[in-house]
Amino acid sequence: MSDTFEPKIVAFVCNWCTYTGADLAGTSRMQYPANVRIIKLPCTGRISPLFIMKALEQGADGVLVSGCHPGDCHYTAGNYHARRKYTIFREMLHFLGVEPERLFFSWVSAAEGRKWADLVAEVTDTVRRLGPRRSAWGEPVEGIAAPRLSANPVPFEAPAGTFAAQAEAMREKAKALLAGGEVGTVIGYEQGTLPGTARPAFVSTPEEVDRLVWNEHCHQNLAVYAARKPAKPGKVALVVKPCDERSLVGLLQENRLAREDVVLIGMACHGVQSEGALAPRCAACQTRTPALADPVIGEATPPTATADPRLEQIARIEQMAPAERWNFWQGHFSRCLKCYACRAACSLCTCERCLAEKAQPRWIPAPPDGAGNLSWHAVRAWHLAGRCVDCGACSAACPADIPLYLLNLKLAQVVKDAFDYEAGRDPAAAPPLTTYREDDAQEFIR
């Protein structure tokens, strides 16, 4: 019995081109390794990244995705959309600590039997040289310490009296909207149960308006309530910061909300506090005034040239070896309780039934263990790629203090660099995974 490692490789291939090319290689008696298990699908556009994660979860040492060349898709644009998906997805897995050499993407036409044979040989040889994966899906690599990250806090500063003046003006506007019957409910903030906290408030009469507050503790993204059916008849007015407004842009783009159904009370922003300092996402924020709000209350603090401390953290993660990155994330995900507070706080987690709750098939393992937690956070980050507006609601809601913002921000960087798109900026723009350009980069595709 040989001790040579023989990798298990799963290939998701297009029915029309790559599968036929593989068949041609076989009927032509071309020799290539038998390590690849082929799964045939109608189109690369239908090959979900979930399939890749499930293959890795179930023990695959490598994964290959292959389909028609651009311009030859039997469904016109399936491979163009696939190219965009995998541009983002491969970067996400790499950031999580999966070696990029375990993932392969290639165009193989029905006439390219030789290319298929050579591709399988190359993939098998590459993964064989890498060796077996050093840990199971969701389990840490033994013998490698999980690195820790820290960031220097940025002091919180706001002009004296600013919040009090804004709060008074906001209450006057809310009272006028309710008294005039323009809205049935105003959703804003009120004093929280504990000192130094605020919580969402739902006000439906002018007499209740005095409950509303505005201060540095108003960090929740109230856009999460915008797409829900209001408890009271009439329009809803939302108190919004600029980052909250960007969430509403996402809802408008996805037809989850009609602009005429909501009144936006915009608050010029000075940032919010987190653990006694300026919230990291606010340090380098360049958008201090809501652009779509009906009134904008107050004058914002001018943007500064402060570097985003989170980008330094991302750079440090990228400098880690793959096994260190893997253990960094497994160390954080191991604390996950599967409470789904991140999902509940997110204004763009709007699926009627979440994938995490579907059992036939069970894409995400239900228990709060290594495999289930990794799959959940990877799937959620992937679903928000090109949509997340960096409001920080998920990280703030997490009782386990998992730095979800780092994963979301990394994917936002990938989308910006690859497709020149920033989520939540333009209601008329097409989200990046709903469109494509024929000249999209594809250097990673063989």
The end-to-end distance, rounded to whole angstroms, is 34 Å
User: Structural class, judged by helices and strands?
Assistant: alpha/beta
- Main beta-sheet annotation: 6 strands, mixed
Total number of helices: 13
**What series of H and E elements makes up the topology?**
EHEHEHEHHEEEEHEEEHEHHHHHH
- Using only C-alpha atoms, the radius of gyration works out to 25 Å
Tell me the total number of β-strands.
12
- Overall shape: elongated
Mean pLDDT: 93
Explain what this protein looks like in three dimensions.
There is one protein chain. By secondary structure, this protein is of the alpha/beta class. It has three domains: 9-130, Rossmann fold (3-Layer(aba) Sandwich), CATH 3.40.50; 162-297, no CATH class; 309-434, no CATH class. Helix content is 34%, strand content 12%. It contains 13 helices and twelve strands. It has helices spanning 18-27, 49-57, 78-96, 113-130, 162-179, 242-253, 280-283, 309-319, 322-333, 341-345, 370-383, 393-397, 404-419, and strands at 9-14, 36-41, 62-67, 103-107, 185-191, 198-203, 212-213, 236-240, 262-267, 273-274, 277-278, 296-297. Strands 5, 6, 7, 8, 9 and 12 form a six-stranded mixed beta sheet that branches. It has a four-stranded parallel beta sheet with strand order 2-1-3-4. Strand 1 (9-14), helix 1 (18-27) and strand 2 form a beta-alpha-beta unit. The longest helix is centred in the first third of the chain and has 19 residues, at 78-96. The mean pLDDT is 93.
